[in-house]
Amino acid sequence: MSLVDVQEVHKTFPSRQRGGDPVHALRGVSLTVDEGETLAIIGESGSGKSTLGRAVLRLLDVDSGTVSFDGKDLGAMDRKELRAQRAEMQVVFQEPYESLNPRMSVGAIVAEPLQIHRPELGSSETRRLVREALERVGLPALAASRLPGELSGGQQQRVGVARAIVSRPRFVVLDEPTSSLDLSIRAQILALLAELQEDLGLAYLFVSHDMHTVEWVSDRVAVMYLGKFVETGPTADLFANPQHAYTRTLLSARLSADPREKHAYRAFPGDTDVVTV
Amino acid sequence: MSERVVSVDPDPTEGSLAERETVLDVVGLDTKIATPEGEVHPVRGVDITVHRGEIVGIVGESGCGKSTTVKGILKLLGPTSTVTAERIMLGDADLLAAKPRQMREIRGSRIGFVAQNPFGSLNPIYSIERQFRELHKAHGRKLGRAENRAVALGMLEGVGIATPERVLDGYAHQLSGGMAQRVVIALATTLSPELLIADEPTTGLDATVQAQIMDLMAHVVVEENRSMLLVTHDLGVIAQYCQRVVVMYDGLVVEHGNVTDVMVDPKHEYTRKLIGSVPKTGEKLNVAR
User: Fold this and answer.
1) Domain edges within chain B
2) Cα angle: B37, vertex B77, A185; to 5 degrees
3) Which end of chain B is more exposed for a tag (fewer CB within 10 A), N or C?
4) Which of A184, A198, A276 sits opposite B274 (nearest CB)?
5) Quick check: A76 pLDDT over 50?
6) Does domain A4-252 have CATH number 3.40.50.300?
7) Per-residue pLDDT for B4 more than 70?
8) Which residue of A has its CA nearest to B236?
9) Does residue A241 sit at the B interface (CB-CB below 8 Å)?
């Protein structure tokens, strides 16, 4: 049995324009994530990949379909059960600063999941676990007394990761965790995530638009286009031998940092720049 | 433009460069900006040369001074800043000595500027057609309405817009990011500038749109034998589209040279570190302990 099992999920949002057509963000998506593996969801703006990340954690309710974690149907859980379950399923967002309360100290931010999920812990035990989480993500113990605004972008994202792992989850959704970071910092955060996965046996759902990053970190990939997966497979196979025209378009848009490797961009028929009138 | 049509000389020798016409010649560019906490010095002694027909990239991470460098060349830094240099020459024009009025004429007619956010470059309350009209007016070119429309239609077709009539009659907010950047490129090249300066022109765009926009910009440069100075943090953009590269770190040029030399065999420690942070095609992440 897979740790995460998503079957035929649909989600529609009302149009932002009066009288506009509803947006069908997820159109029958199914996926599984096993213990300790990384499944990457790759897609461009508006493909539905972030909606999917939220649906998997039941941070939003789906219209139809099921989302199960460890064999339990999240859709059938009441608020209390869901809250207990969330200790095991956490998330790291794209913009570290926006996802951290600017008025809370780093220590208080990282302690929050423990206060919610492990209220029985005493304050000294909570502090010990916070210290341990900060250490795991490579932050010094004295970072606990800092405010997020006093830290660099890379350090802020380390805080986001510490908060995600402090409650000992088995599964973490990584929603573009390195997209807003400079290259050298990005590599450090990706290495940290890989190390944590190995040490803690985490399963990741890695949502990204960056093909280099996905190829680097994932075991399997699902390519998302207009709310559906057009292709899924083991990362190495899919990158070496893409089957769907859209996957080939995406791969052709990669710009290699090696000037000796040249790709020619191949347009996708559905890939149109249209005026929205 | 479904294929990458541009084939650039990957390895121009020093000899051939020396024979090529110099379009932009910047020596010893310094910028100082007064802040409440005192003066900062974000760019210190930067030299940049761009030859005709060439795309030169400036690459570096946040805060390295790459954007300040091009804004200094364009004299677009605010009144709290000072720009000094040994020289900033655009062909025969001395930009260092140019008065604000002369700079306004040069920007647009001799240097086209493409910024990161196209919606910041386009006027939200003028139709796209009117923005072409305003461009001609600002540079003292008298064009009738019909003539302006014909020129604008041609420019939009030239940047690969399938429905130029509709775009001309519309407004910026009706365009996708990629379309808006195409319109900005059309506006930036309408007066046939010899130099394009682009500051992160594809940052924030989807990868497929980035590839299309970069193909278009390279096409616009090569086709018309123009030149481009391109600021980016993306080493893929440098490797695939530039012939020469300037690597900046902390306000200084740490390394420069032709792209193949610098990217394949970087000499400076910072360049090596930067290139080492990019996942290579087909490579898996190693957990460094």
Assistant:
1) 7-110+193-278, 120-192
2) 70
3) C
4) A184
5) yes
6) yes
7) no
8) A257
9) no
CB B196 within 8 A of CB B227: yes
Q: Where are the alpha helices (DSSP H) in B14-144?
A: 14-19, 66-74, 100-109, 118-121, 128-138
- B100 contacts B184 by C-beta, under 8 angstroms: no
**Predicted pLDDT of residue A143:** 94
Long-range contacts of B258-261 (CB under 8 A, 24+ apart): B258/B11, B258/B12, B259/A259, B259/B10, B259/B57, B260/A259, B260/A260, B260/B10, B260/B11
Q: Best residue in A16, A197, A238, A273 to probe B by mutation, most B CBs within 10 Å?
A: A273
pTM recorded for the entire structure: 0.84
Q: Looking at the complex, does the CB of residue A266 fall below 8 Å from at least one CB of chain B? A: yes
Pairing of strands A38-42, A203-208: parallel
A183 touches B at CB < 8 Å: yes
What distances in angstroms separate CA B55 from CA A36, A101, A253, B112, B246, one per listed residue?
45, 43, 20, 14, 11
Cα B211 to the center of its chain, rounded Å: 15
What is the Cα–Cα distance from A118 to A112, expressed in whole angstroms? 10
Looking at CA atoms only, how far is residue B29 from chain A in angstroms?
Answer: 25
Q: Does A35 touch chain B (CB under 8 A)?
A: no
* Both tokens assigned to B235: 């080493």
* Beta carbons within 8 Å of B61's beta carbon, 6+ residues apart: A182, A183, A184, B233, B249, B274
- Selecting from B263, B264, B287 the residue whose C-beta is nearest the C-beta of A195 gives B287
Residue B170 Cα, gap to closest chain A Cα (Å): 8
The alpha carbon of A249 is separated from its chain's Cα centroid by a whole number of angstroms, namely: 23
Asked if the C-beta of A1 comes within 8 angstroms of chain B's C-beta atoms, the answer is no
What residue type is assigned to position A167 of the chain? S
Chain A contacts of B211, Cβ < 8 Å?
Answer: 252-253, 255, 265
Is B280 within 8 Å of A257 when comparing Cβ atoms? yes
Q: Does position B8 have pLDDT exceeding 60, yes or no?
A: no
Domain limits of chain A? 4-252
- Please check whether residue A254 touches B, CB under 8 A: yes
Q: Give the model confidence (pLDDT) of B110-122 as tens digits.
A: 999 999 999 999 9
Best probe of the B interface among A37, A210, A212, A265, by most B CBs < 10 A, is A265
User: Taking the domain B7-110+193-278, which CATH number applies?
Assistant: 3.40.50.300
> Residue A103 in contact with residue A109, Cβ under 8 Å?
no
Chain B partners within 8 Å of A194 (Cβ): 285, 287
Tokens of B49: 């040369």
pLDDT-derived band of residue A97, with 50, 70 and 90 as boundaries?
confident
B65 in Cβ contact with B251 (< 8 Å): yes
Q: Cβ contacts (< 8 Å) between B179 and chain A: which residues?
A: 273-275
B240·A255 Cβ contact <8 A: yes
